[in-house]
Design a protein that fits this description.
heterodimer; A: Uridine Diphospho-n-acetylenolpyruvylglucosamine Reductase, domain 3; Enolase-like, domain 1; four-stranded antiparallel sheet; B: alpha+beta; Ubiquitin-like (UB roll); 2 domains; 5 helices; binds flavin-adenine dinucleotide; binds FE2/S2 (inorganic) cluster
Amino acid sequence: MALALHTFPTVKDAGAALKAGGTRYIGGGTLVVRAVNEGDVSISGFVRSADPALSVIRISGGTVRIGASVTMAAIARHADLAPLAHAARAVGGPAIRNMASVGGNLFAPTPYGDFTVALLALDATVSTDDGELPIETFLAKRESNHAIVTAVGFTLPKEGGFRFLKVSRVKPKGVSVLSIATVLEQAPDGTVSSARIALGCMADRPIRASAAEKALIGRKLTADGIAPALAVARDGTSPPTDPIASAWYRNEVLPVHLGRLLLA
Amino acid sequence: MAKVPVQFTLNGAEKAEFIDSGTTLLHALRDKIGDTSPKGGCHQGTCGACSVIIDGELRLSCLTLAEACNGATIITTSGLSERGVLHPLQRAFLDAFATQCGFCTPGMIMAAKVLLDHTPNPSREDVVEALSGNICRCTGYEPIIQAVLTAARSNSQNAA
Ligand SMILES: Cc1cc2nc3c(=O)[nH]c(=O)nc-3n(C[C@H](O)[C@H](O)[C@H](O)COP(=O)(O)OP(=O)(O)OC[C@H]3O[C@@H](n4cnc5c(N)ncnc54)[C@H](O)[C@@H]3O)c2cc1C
Ligand code: FES
Ligand code: FES
């Protein structure tokens, strides 16, 4: 193997180096180094930035900013990010979590990207060296976006407002059959006043369940109240068939798991 | 391709080598430095046989570039015994028949060491979680879990 690793003090310099053909940005390397080990000859060099800001978690007044190089392990152990710890711990085993970065997770293809599902439900903003984008827009064109992600930002949900579920066959660590994250707000009478539902493994990248979100508004979180949302949960999905599960199976179990999460 | 220098502390000893840029830490440790305790099972991050401890954290050496470890402190299973006396984890693995073919053992021991360093009295669930990135095709896992719990108990008895 003859692959150059170039480390730059600033994101700007790293961005300039990425313009060379065959270069890839490297975060924790759990996907890109694996690709090279598997024989991906399209990669001839790695680029990274050692800017310390990329490894910082900043929380002020309920607003969170997580640097792109922050690992899943760092998120899972951060006391102020306790509501998200479950989602960060859903990524791989302990060694993977010590390496896997937030930035890399945004690019992880299905069946990976579990933490990105959480970020999508949180309606995060993705900051790059080329400006900021809503996460949904970022995900839609992530292959053609050659900018370096510097951070993700979002508002911490109210206590109990964020829910996350990863379904896998191997416990405690396994690749996703699917994952679901929700951010719900309820009026004083218990009816849902706002709902964001994000799905992993129900398309080639995390997607929002827009029809189910709409169907939840004004409903209570009871079996009857959520029934219309579950009935349209599969709208717009196109899950893959892979060694973990078939597309048919994923579609069959999605409403079941969404129902359990909403009633939890 | 030009060689690049790497320098780190391995099991308490300073190591400096010239390696091909892009070499994984697993390759550098085994084929350049001669520490064959980390094993190359899958080179994909799935088996855990290549696990090492870098600056106190469990990492997969097959997915880590050696150049990214400049200045780091690395521990491998070959550095655990002291003057021929096995580490309590190594002793417990042998006594509990937690090692059969032995291929997974160095990675299991690295994962278990990090657990016990941070959680000296783990529950069974803690042990299962800590070993969840490591695959064993021989033992059925139960003897490994028991060995880690036994090592934890012997550590706390020694400390008492
Ligand atoms: C055994 C194993 C188990 C896994 N299990 C899970 C799992 O359960 N859930 C899950 O979600 N994932 C899982 N993964 C996938 C992966 O570990 C994670 O998605 C991880 O977050 C990827 O981050 P990374 O830093 O390692 O990415 P890298 O491998 O460093 O990069 C991945 C991609 O993102 C790009 N990239 C990385 N950082 C940036 C940046 N800042 N700006 C622009 N581009 C960037 C790279 O160029 C590359 O294309 C697993 C991987 C392995 C090997
Ligand atoms: S060889 Fe590294 S995880 Fe299998
Ligand atoms: S002892 Fe053979 S793989 Fe674990």
